[in-house]
Amino acid sequence: MSQAKKVTGIHVKGIGKYVPEMVATNEDFAKIVDTSDEWITQRTGIKTRHITNGEPTYYLGAKAAKAAIADAGISPEDIDLIITATVTPDFFTPSTACLIQREIGAVGSMAIDINCACTGFDYGIDMARRYLLAEDGVDTVLLIAAEELSKFTDYTDRSSCILFGDGSAAFVLERKKDTLYSSYLGADGTGAKFLVSRAMRSENAFRTNKEEFDMDMPATKAHYFTQDGKEVYKFATRTLPIAVEKACEKAGIAPEDLDAIVPHQANVRIIETAAKNLGVSMDKMVVYIDRYGNTSSASIPIAFCDAVAEGRIRRGDKVCLVGFGGGLTYAGIVFEY
Ligand code: ACO
């Protein structure tokens, strides 16, 4: 029997999620690209995804934030730090975190955006915990993942457009002493070319051809998302079990001691393969990809919120949130809910 280590970790005081009202089914996609419900269901596990009808990223984030604040029973003024994970901000500046701060009235808080693609929520928890650990004025953190992936989805590319949905979720986090917590985070920039969405090109009058700085990045259609699905698949099935194992090892527990594993929801086949490689049953895996598709950084906390609402994750449960995505990045966070 392994010995769980007790450290200063996190207390998840409140959670909340928001997805836009509009739903796109697989049948809807069959009307715009050459695909079918059967192909999408078998290859990805996705049935529906929510897509905005003009609501921007900050709006989705603020809705989830308000729900998490209400669940935590705190006031927006109690928040010391807002961290927003997103790869689909509405502006280069101001940050999404600043726009959410304005929306919810979290007067006086710090606000920062992070971009770690689908791993953003895990990186955000780790960052929040390190601020909390410092014990120098940050006692309450609002962590939000908000994504409007429809902004960069190429709806003529059948191999990627069927995967993505929009949505948001948020946690209110506090410091907790003598609890289970560990994080294992990593990145591999050599895989940068496998998941790409460019910033808009500068029209700077003094600009010369800067292709030489592009290294081996793929040619893309403007800012639209492009991927090497097979390379991502290989990366995900390799790193997902490693991130869970390493995070568990640091926490002094074994993967089978976990009550639930909430993986990034990219493809149900990735999750099934990873569960097999980890030697854990699919019952431990929290999967709601059929409802929401892949919402990048928001996918883990959205799935967490549904699992709590449906009683699959309860207070006191040992949980691992495991992410993998663009960058390439990967991460596992183990904590007690
Ligand atoms: N409908 C019908 N046929 C399709 C579709 C579609 N939507 N998309 C691709 N196909 C076709 C291909 O053209 C190909 O046809 P061909 O054999 O005539 O050339 C055939 O289906 C098989 O294509 P593959 O790419 O081999 O299909 P695969 O089983 O690998 O599934 C997928 C593709 C779903 C993209 C898979 O590789 C995958 O999930 N990869 C992981 C990528 C991922 O999750 N990205 C999300 C963003 S990143 C992240 O979240 C980490």
Can you tell me about this structure?
With 337 residues, this protein is α/β, with parallel strands linked by helices. The protein folds into two domains: 7-178, Peroxisomal Thiolase, Chain A, domain 1 (3-Layer(aba) Sandwich); 182-200 and 220-336, Thiolase/Chalcone synthase (Peroxisomal Thiolase, Chain A, domain 1, 3-Layer(aba) Sandwich), CATH 3.40.47. 32% of the residues lie in helices and 24% in strands. The chain has a five-stranded mixed β-sheet with strand order 1-7-6-4-5, with helices on both faces. Strands 8-13-12-11 form a four-stranded mixed β-sheet. Strands 2-3 form a two-stranded antiparallel ribbon. β12 and β13 form a beta hairpin. The longest helix has 23 residues, at 229-251. The chain is globular. The model has no long low-confidence stretch (mean pLDDT 95).
Bound compounds, each kind once, are: acetyl coenzyme *A
* The CATH homologous superfamily of the largest domain: Thiolase/Chalcone synthase
- H and E order: EEHHEHEHEHEHEEEEHEHHHEE
Number of strands: 13
- Please give the CATH class of the largest domain: Alpha Beta
Shape: globular
Mind describing the biggest β-sheet?
A: 5 strands, mixed
Count the domains: 2
Distance between the termini: 21 Å
List the helices and strands and how they pair.
Blueprint: E1 7-18, E2 23-25, H1 26-32, H2 37-44, E3 48-50, H3 57-72, E4 81-85, H4 96-104, E5 110-114, H5 120-134, E6 140-148, H6 158-161, E7 166-179, E8 181-187, E9 195-196, E10 226-227, H7 229-251, E11 260-263, H8 268-278, H9 289-292, H10 299-309, E12 318-325, E13 329-336
Parallel strand pairs: 4-5, 4-6, 11-12
Antiparallel strand pairs: 1-7, 2-3, 6-7, 8-13, 9-10, 12-13
The structure holds acetyl coenzyme *A (ACO).
